[in-house]
Here is the input.
Amino acid sequence: MITKKPQHKPDIRIGTLVSAGMKAPEYIRQIRPYGFESFSLTFWQTTKDVNWKKLAAELKEVLADSHAVISSLGVYGNPLETGPKDKETLQGWKEAIDHAHLFDCDIVAGFTGRLRNRPIDESMPRFRQVWTPLAKRAQAKGVRIAFENCDMGGSWQTGDWNIAHNPVAWEMMFHEVPFDNLGLEWEPCHQMVNLIDPMPQLPEWGRKIFHVHGKDATIYWDRVRKYGIRTSVHEDIARKSGSQGAKPFAYHRTPGFGDSDWTAIISNLRMVGFKGSIDIEGWHDPVMKGALEMTGQVAALKYLKQCRSDFVPNPEI
Here is the structure.
């Protein structure tokens, strides 16, 4: 009699981001059959009015007959400022940390926040004040905090949302709040569009990478060489201007449609011991959009699985 062995759980799952409203279970029910292995639930600025127990129970029901998981909860806002929405974001972080266990996940992700329109270094005292107690809160509950590396249109000197978009800022952040459960939600795109090579970051920062967003970029180096980066504007504005030089020099892309070698990325992640999820961040690609959105995401899912390679058990001798 042959005993059927349990299905192998991949060391790196490939999934997607899902807006975490109360319609998330129905959305996941529709796309799960495509083969997504994980789902990252994302909240924009607030978790107000979320029924955590109901949401978790409905998601468990949707995922019950699969091996798919909830990889992380994400709260994206500015918890360092003190406006009404900022306070909701800070409260949202606390609630997500407290309720992550209901989803059987141990990662809460999002932006660090920043003092608006101030240089990154001036945000550090406030970063320490807010994130030290949050790191302790998360540590007590077995939760890891992952900061996305998106600049949200900001720079070192100014911005509205996030300071965790530059390796120098990472050094400062983890010096200010030196907790092992504080890390990064990394993706190559946000480095590439700032003309930073993302690949050297993996051996240096890999052990701080807790979650990966599956998003890529295409860089038009001919435009960079001819026009630089300061004339780049949104595609709609460029079209109206009629100037080739006004076109963007970089585009956010779905994995498989951009410049990155994801086989190399996954290999480097494995080298530093990463075990977690690469969740595709859709809704940014200038080509695979609209009616082609899910076409692009499923193509990315298949591509990333190919880069990861299917598990094949070794012979038992």
Notes: The longest strand covers residues 12-19. Confidence is low (pLDDT under 50) at residues 1-6.
